[in-house]
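pipeline/complex-builder :: batch 7 item 3
reading input block
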Amino acid sequence: MYPKKDLLGIEELNSKEIQNYLDTAEKFLEILDRPIPIIPALRGKTILTLFFEPSTRTQISFSVAAKRLSADVINFSASTSSVKKGETLLDTAKNIEAMKVDGVVVRHFASGAPKILAENLNAFVINAGDGTHEHPTQALLDMMTMRQHFGYLKNLNVLIVGDILHSRVARSNIFGLKTMGANVAVCAPPTLIPIDIEKLNVEVFYNLDEIIGDFDVVMALRIQLERQEAGLFPSVREYRNLYGLTVERVKRMKPKSIIMHPGPTNRGLEIDPEVADGPKSVILKQVKNGVAMRMGILFIHAGGKIE
Amino acid sequence: MQGERLSSILIKNGRVIDPKTRFDRIADILIEGNKIQKIERNLKVEGAKIIDASGMIVSPGFIDLHCHLRDPGRPDEETIESGAKAAIAGGFTTICCMPNTEPPIDNEGIVNYIIKEAQRVNLCRVYPIGTITKKREGKEISEFGELIKAGVKGFSDDGNTVGDARVLRYAMEYSKIFNATIFEHPLDESLSKGGVMNEGEISTRLGLPGSPTIAEELIVARDLMLSKFTGAKLHLCHISTRGSVELIRRAKKEGIDVTCETCPHYFFFNDRVLETYNTNYKVNPPIRSEIDRRAIIEGLRDGTIDCISTDHAPHTQAEKELEFISAPFGMIGLETALSLVIMQLINVEKFTWLEVIDKLTYKPAQVLKEKLGVLKEGAIADITIINPNIKWQYKPENIKSKSKNSPFLNKELIGRAEYVIVNGEIKYQAGV
């Protein structure tokens, strides 16, 4: 299968393309358990990680993935907007182009920024999260984790709980899971649910206690305290009481169900520590799968070869 | 021949359309001095400059109630000179410039500057709109009397709504001294705050903060009620939603003294175009959903929407190359408005020429209370001759505006102004 130059979002992928990412990542998972977990698949390739918004975890995950494939990695973080720098997005693209890197992993605070970069670069672009739009590599590693656990995605019942409005993780998971035939529901206060989300064939619930027992996967999202300051919910206490994955609430979940979280967690807020570390939690598996998935993604887009 | 030498122009064989009298026939027009002398078939005048308008439409000069010339303040974006050049290239013989300049048009000094500069440029009529409140701060009303004396043709804090209902009430009451019109930019800023596109399915998919339709409709409803309450003359700017059209339709039936305008981008596009993240589609109010676009077209058809304005809003390339959330709102429109009217309203929606010319000429003249927008003997000779079928490319190097922030760059457009006559003088000829 000939891949697209860039990975900008899950919305633009079909089920075959998603499956290809999942299958490729599965193969790389084995390498991570080797005594020397490194292969020369991308030797001589240069990958730039360009983070316009701080995210230590994602940047490290990509760096580790690239190094496991023997690529050269350059990490760059700049958390100021181009407005403040006096440089436009197109200037940034032209500068990168002049440096002749093979691929760019970009995290940006503005939705759509990776797309504009990709349109102006010959290097491939991997979206590592843009604004409140998409986080495709996270959704792919999430789907990988679900498939690992259940063996399938079709008709899997997945519930995403929390700040859907501002979540690129939720959007990418919704697009991907719907494409793979899963059933997706969201549960949050109405103030944190984006308008017309039902048009993406997603069920909407406001009362977590009534429905938590119906799902195979419950994914909690990080709640940002600035959302309370913006008046979207009245208090952390009330949020936890209504939507937190508390020890009590999790008892109502299906026997074989799992709990996911894209991290970093606010322990004791959207998820209790005992739940995050408990038997249903696959949070650390997600982190490990993240490296394998990013290896697979870089491998596919850099046109790597296994000798 | 008359004694003194009057320059005369004879426009031959055009389809002459005058919305006021509903005249729509092939005829010749003789212009002498700055007036229309005769409208008849087969006129013969010795020594007159002849314009062959066969196959073309002869319309009153277009009047744009709403553009931004950025002068004074941002000569890198636009000046009165470049804006006037863009206007005549688009068929506009009169343009009203909004007062969100730096400094704003809130005193007669700025009004005098604009009027003098427009006279120096001498291309089209430039009518300044004054601010409703001093410094556009929404607190104290401007000196309407002084501003009108200096030459403003209406009042607006465009770019901002007058958020404080009491201030707007005072402005409306005070405007009655002068029978002046309040041009409101209707958008509840507490609801639209942070929004960069229409709130709906598309904004949800794109992860861009939305500006909901109700942000416009709440203020439209408030302003209609205030207009009814005060009896002031209200003109609602750049109407973009179905709800607004419905509210205004009802208000007009009730007899409220209101007029309104929409812009070509609201009947030409729906919010799916934002999928490109092209910042040239970022406008305020935002391009709305297909349901709203249909309602705007129906509002134009049944007369609820009186005028088509451009909201020509120039921005530099550097500003528009920023991230979508950071780029400023606005697209240029003076040079593309006619083509969009033809391509959408005439060719697709089957409006008559009389209907669309009415909204580009006579209706805006009525809002301004100016004796413009008519083609009749004795009227001021502001005339736009339209070639309705010609296909042309909107190339960046040919754009007259200083800014190029248009989603139509390098696109093929249909129809253009072929000749533009202002006050009896040919000010523009396409391709020359």
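note: Chain B has two domains: 8-58+379-429, 61-368.
queue -> next item
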